[in-house]
Write a structure and sequence with these properties.
Elements lengths: L13 H23 L6 H45 L9 H7 L4 H13 L4 H7 L11
Helix pairs in contact: 1-2, 2-3, 3-5
């Protein structure tokens, strides 16, 4: 596995992000065409197929969102604890979730200063990641 850094830290799972999403969109397109071309005898089954494709789209979206929310919550707890262990202080309550998520990549040496700067300058997650000098990899991200 290559060393993780800002350029390669985003993780895509091809089977989920590409294959499944394209397959669901193809199902949606095919079911719409099927419904449009349906005869009165099979309009009910064509409508059910369209409904099933809409359900798949909804599930695809919400399964990903729910997993990311759980992951974000775990990151927030881990980073607040790490900040407390390193500094003996609680993290600033004005810290946004996107900032905390980005700070997980900061080394222990630069965490406190970068967290303070993030709040004071209202840095985005991307700006925080770009400011990190010593990248702390997270190979377990979702």
């Amino acid at each position: 596995m290559s060393t993780q850094n800002y350029q390669n830290h985003v993780r895509y799972v091809p089977g989920f992000h590409y294959v499944t999403s394209v397959a669901i969109l193809a199902l949606l397109g095919g079911s719409v065409v099927n419904l449009i071309q349906a005869t009165p005898e099979n309009v009910y089954s064509a409508a059910l197929l369209l409904l099933a494709s809409i359900i798949f789209i909804s599930m695809f979206y919400y399964l990903r969102i729910f997993a990311l929310r759980a992951h974000d919550k775990a990151i927030r707890a881990e980073e607040r604890f790490r900040y407390y262990v390193l500094t003996g202080k609680q993290m600033d309550s004005r810290q946004r979730m996107s900032q905390i998520i980005a700070l997980r990549f900061a080394s222990d040496e630069e965490l406190e200063a970068l967290a303070k700067r993030a709040v004071e300058e209202k840095l985005s997650g991307k700006a925080i990641k770009e400011s990190i000098r010593q990248w702390r990899p997270d190979y377990n991200q979702v």
